[in-house]
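@channel sequence for tomorrow's demo:
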Amino acid sequence: MKTLFQIPFLLLSCITFSNVIAENSSDGSGQQLFKKHCAVCHVATPGQRRIAPPIFAVKNHYLAVHDEELTFVDAVTSWVANPLEENSLMKGAIRHFKLMPKIVVPDEEAMKIAEYIFSDAVGIPDAYKNHYADNHGGKPAKQYSRLLLRQLRLSPEQVDELTLSDDQLKKINQLIVEKEVIMQPMREEVLGFNQQLQSLDSRKSDYKSEIEALADVNAKRVEQMVLASGAARGKIEAVLDEKQYQMLLKFRVALLKRLKRS
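structure tokens (generated this afternoon):
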């Protein structure tokens, strides 16, 4: 964990200036809250040394992974609440600007800020979109989300071959979001099992029985995860027509063959 002495001076100045803005801002809109908490670091003015990635760059990185508003807002608010390097979508920005310090923002205000960033009000310059595409490859933001690619286990080019309609893409993305809402609490419980296991005193007489009790609860949670994931996958793949589904199976067989050879 970084101490105050490890946070660059400019970032400390940024936090201080944000507090000054906060005292003079009473508008609770997402735009005003963004100005209050974020603009001083993420919106550079002419002649000012940039101390954080521009907000349109942040937006583009998040849209590439979370192109639905629900998951976008959740990802941004989670980052603001607890910025950790391992959870960052912008490793290059951390190398260049250092890790963003934790700034206390009420949950309701953080959600409004994230919704404002997601909105069309925060535009992404065409020049930056081209730069992002050249350096990161793949599709432009808001075409195929990483959640969709991960769910179908396909490359962007393979999704192209499926020739999904706009309505199909919209429905699939909606179902993936619903799946994530269901699965995330279960994942957190399973991760919690490992944390509890690490906290046990291995020298206590009931150490073994405590492990067995935890393992029993964890096994039930894993079983629930598998069932829930299977049900969600069925709903998602039901959106495909027969030709698309057979093509999906063909891609998966090829993937399994590649995995066996590797």
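heads up for whoever presents: The CA atoms of residues 139 and 252 lie 21 Å apart.
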